[in-house]
Amino acid sequence: MSGHSKWHNIQGRKNAQDAKRGKVFQKLSREIYMAAKSGGPDPSGNPSLRLVMDKARAANMPKTNIERAIKKAEGNSEEHYDEITYEGYAPGGVAVLVEALTDNKNRTASDVRVAFTRNGGSLGATGSVAYMFDRRGYIAIDRSTTDADEDQVLLDVMDAGGDDLETSDEAFEIYTDPKQFTAVRDALEKAGYKIADAELTMIPQNTTPVPADKKEQFEHLIDALEDNDDVSNVYTAAADDDE
User: Fold this and answer.
1) Mean predicted lDDT score pLDDT of the chain
2) What was the pLDDT predicted at 142?
3) Is the Cβ–Cβ distance between 235 and 133 less than 8 Å?
4) How far apart are the first and last CA of the chain?
5) What is the C-alpha separation between 7 and 94, in angstroms, rounded?
6) Cys-Cys with 92: which of 5, 20, 108, 214 at CB 3.0–4.6 Å?
7) Could you count the other beta carbons within 10 Å of the beta carbon of residue 169?
8) Are 174 and 141 in contact (CB under 8 A)?
9) How far apart are CA 168 and CA 3, in angstroms?
10) pLDDT tens figures, 62-109
């Protein structure tokens, strides 16, 4: 792995989400609707739906909101969303991937472009930065929730089919092949671990430090993208401050 730890970023993201929970729920409802519409309303037979439902529960989304989105997908709703990925560079030359779920591609493309240009970045062509990221399964275990040491966790991760383990004072971070992600997560839960975070994500192969004089611009760009109602995920190749 590149040494790119997600743990601190995840904690910061969750704190930010708490402050704008209504918008987060709106985005999750859209993801649940699309997953149920394309793969069926039963999460036991629809891994994509199960994954986004787990994501919704982790965000403390009310059960009624989840059920409403699934029922909407079962009905005759004509809503349709396109999945689009935008690629570009943030200030300092940091690669950025933006995943969106939109019912108006022109609106979203315009909004994303404006977010980049107003905050010192530049939107690139398809394929301009995607090759710098790998799709991975990511699972985090808060160390305060387990008595297991690193050796024991590594054995359990290998037994579960995980590829890699990174350890810090706060967390055990596990990376998996995307196809094995659900099986690894389930095996670790069965082994008694409490999962703090689990998701399919994009991991940069290498990271780029954000220059000190560009950090404020960089943060404004990421905030502008994440605040967009159509944007589901924002991934960057920015190096952690302690790297």
Assistant:
1) 89
2) 92
3) yes
4) 13
5) 19
6) 214
7) 6
8) yes
9) 11
10) 999 999 999 998 887 778 889 999 999 999 999 999 999 999 999 999
Please answer whether residues 89 and 121 qualify as being in contact, where contact means their C-beta atoms are separated by less than 8 angstroms.
yes
- Residue found by looking up tokens 């108006």 in the block: 104
Give residue-wise pLDDT tens across range 127-153.
999 999 999 999 999 999 999 999 999
Asked if residue 66 lies in contact with residue 53, where contact means CB atoms within 8 angstroms, the answer is: yes
**Packing angle, helices 63-74 and 21-39, rounded to 10:** 40
Decide: residue 171, CB within 10 A, 0-12 exposed, 13-18 middle, 19+ buried: buried
| DSSP code at position 84 | E
Nearest-angstrom CA–CA distance, 54 and 63: 11
Indicate the CATH number for domain 6-74: 1.10.10.200
Helix (H, G, I), strand (E, B) or coil at 104: coil
Residues 204, 236: contact at Cβ < 8 Å? yes
Q: What is the pLDDT of residues 190-223, one digit of tens each?
A: 999 999 888 889 999 999 999 999 999 999 999 9
Give phi and psi for 127, each to the nearest 5.
95, -5
Per-domain boundaries in the chain: 6-74
Continuous segment of H or E residues that includes residue 159: helix 150-160
Considering only the C-alpha atoms of the chain, give the largest distance between any 2 of them, rounded to a whole number of Å. 52
- Under DSSP, the state recorded for 211 is P
Q: Which residues pair with 141 in a beta bridge?
A: 172
Reported as type and span, the H/E element at residue 146 is: none
Closest to 89 measured CA to CA, from 98, 102, 99: 98
